[in-house]
Amino acid sequence: MTLHGRHESLRFLAEAASAAMVGQGALVMVRADPGLGVTSLLEAHLSAMRDSGLRGYRVPVLPPEGRTPLSAGTPEWEEPALVVIDDLHRADDETLLALHDLAEGIYGRPLLIVTGRHRGVAPDRFAGLDRLGIVHDLHPLDEDAVLAMRPDVARAGEAGGNPWLLSRITAGDRATQVSAWAAGLAGADVDLLRCAALLGESASVDELAAVSGTTPSDALTAVARLSARGLVQERSGEVQVRHPVVRTDIATTSAGLRGSVARALAERDAPVARIADHLAHAPMDAWAVRWVAEHAEQLTARSSPKVVRLLESAVAALSPGDPRVPALRAARTEALLWSGSAEQARRAAAEILLAQPDPPVRHRLLAVLGIIANGEFAPGTALSVLEPERRNGKLPARLAALDAYAHLLTGDLEATARAVAEASEAADEPLVEVYLCNIRAIGQCLARDYSAALEQLDRASVLLEVSAYEPAQWLMSRLLRAVVQNLEEDPAVMDTIDQARPVARSIGLGFLPWLHTIAAVAALKFGEWDRALAEVDAGLALPHQHGMAGPLHAVAATILVNRGDLPAGREHAELADQAVPHGVATFYQPLMTVTRALLAGVDGDLGRAVKIVRDVVEGGGGMPTDRSIAPVCVPLVRIAVAGGERDLARRLTERMLEWSHDDSTITYCRSLIADDVDELLAAAQAFADSSAPLAAAQAAQDAAVALAAAGRSDAAKAAYSAAIDKFAAMAAHREIDRTAAHLRAHGVQLGASGPRRRPKHGWDSLTGAEMRVVELVAQGLTNREVAERLVVSVRTVDSHVSRVLRKLGCSSRLELAVKHRERR
């Protein structure tokens, strides 16, 4: 018999048996939680000892009275011998008394008695035996043992390291087996155990009492019994079934209780989502229909596929002429939208509108269509959806807010202002005010008044939290905040993006590619280039980028060109040029302009690069000045200086004053034009302090070249060293090589302090992305789970893992995990 992770326990028992064979007998009390593998351990030990020639006896505990051969007195065992008694917690008192007598005189005899029992069951009954014997506690398996035991189980936490449960993970009738096993352990308390499983990860004793129909006092007593049997645990008044697998399987086989659980929770004013979770698995009776109709608005705001099914069941349970049907169908349509089924929501809304519903329902459906169109950055479609209602008079407040947003996307600020004024007449509606806060924040971003924009977003956040909630507006508020943080070079932008990511994934539409674009631009700016490329990959892997393909390709092109991968950089740049941005993507036009200029410089065509800069200065160059930001223009200033067009660079810097109040960036550009080394070094330090490593590296690079031109070799080497440390962290090999070439052209010999590249092997050879993959693989995650966690494709993770194994000389993921643990 093979036991994983129990080698120490088997060794301990074997040593005890060896001692007994020479006359040093003992009583060993093995204790463990239910299902943790005591029976398997005792059987393996008995088998091994018999194979070694030791006589072995197995003493059964017979249900229901718990009688054993020891109940009638001590049997005549031929010694030396091993006696094994499993399930001692079920044994009768006579057996325990007999064991007590044996234990008092066992030392000096060639006899080893090994017992197994559930820890926590009537501990007072066994206190005396524990004192006379040797106690050996069996603990859950460690992660390596679980993975060895069940290769198809990704994480030990799935079954708490419980061998019995793990052995049934893939069984077709697992739920039935696990429920029967748990019911046998629970005994008369099985109903309370079922209710605890149905209530989810935790429930109060009061809730358990209400749902199971007992008093709180009786529920507390039952919880204590279940806890002693290792089935539940109670912490600070909250009760939960100990193992997730047990909880899931008992809940699966107890579905018939869901309806009564829902009613009990409703009577206690439990959260709507919690009640709905049970109703989704229960028959739809009259009470359930009434409850769903009364809470439909709350359900749809935080929807899921389960809520969609619940609303569908409620509609199906009503007769076609029931007055509640139209509102419930509208609620289902909204639920489809918020749960990520936008196309289904669009079709459902159009179908219901054909029946010419009453104004309240019609307005809700038009709002769904308007949200979808705006969310796809298709303002023309949104305006056409709202046009028929506009012909009937003034738009209702929420539709007017959607109208304002659509006009804003088209760039028609006058029409936007009219729609905002129309919506503002209903400012007492919290949700409409949220729309207006987000629209005002966009306008203030365009006017570069970021503090005012954040004030509007703060107000929207408060309203969304306490007065009204709509997933699209919550997400819009978070994404706009991330945009402002990006513009202000605030590292908190990454936290904001991660907060928004789950909702963006749920809704989809254009929000998700926009989120990937914001994240990619932020990671580019903060020097996290591996993360930026991962965001690009994730965005481009979506079925539709809603205009964001251009900015995403531009980010990839910028990074790859700086890293020296010119063919790939060129390919992304060409794809960026071919993309047709629309909606929000037009705000990222400057990024694509810079990419074109950068690539021209790399190709050695400084004339073409300078022409792009001149087009920006003189005519916008496809980069509207009211949407430009100074940091994007810095590479253009550098191109103009490199091309000997300092006057052009000076004019661009002066134009930047119209677009930005970023003093450090303006100072840097002026220092570059004037070859002011001290100011360039000060700018490099300022950028480093503000977490802008690329700008810091470029400023130090410019200072190094200026110092070399002035004949100050030692100072040039020092500035160069500061630059390449930052470039190396981003793997910007092209920039390292380019700077070294400039310095050599001025006679500065770098020698051993020349370009430092990342080593090819060992831990230091890993990129940031590869290191994150290693950490997750070492936790036992599969490649698919790693991909989901890092928001990249499985193929990308496969490539990372292959490279990591090669760089570290590992032959398997297990060896990789071991090396990672040793390194820590």
Description:
The protein contains 43 helices and eight strands. Helix 33 (630-642) runs antiparallel to helix 34. The two termini are 34 Å apart. Residues 152-158 and 620-631 have low confidence and may be disordered.
Core attributes:
single chain, 824 residues, mainly alpha, Rossmann fold, Arc Repressor Mutant, subunit A, Serine Threonine Protein Phosphatase 5, Tetratricopeptide repeat, three-stranded antiparallel sheet, 8 strands, 65% helix, flat, transcription
Largest sheet, in brief, is:
5 strands, parallel
Q: Tell me, rounded to a whole number, the average pLDDT.
A: 82
- Strand order of the main beta sheet, please? 2-3-4-1-5
CATH class of one domain: Mainly Alpha
InterPro entries: P-loop_NTPase (IPR027417), Sig_transdc_resp-reg_C-effctor (IPR016032), Tscrpt_reg_LuxR_C (IPR000792), WH-like_DNA-bd_sf (IPR036388)
Keywords: DNA-binding, Transcription, Transcription regulation
Organism: Saccharopolyspora ipomoeae
Pfam families: GerE
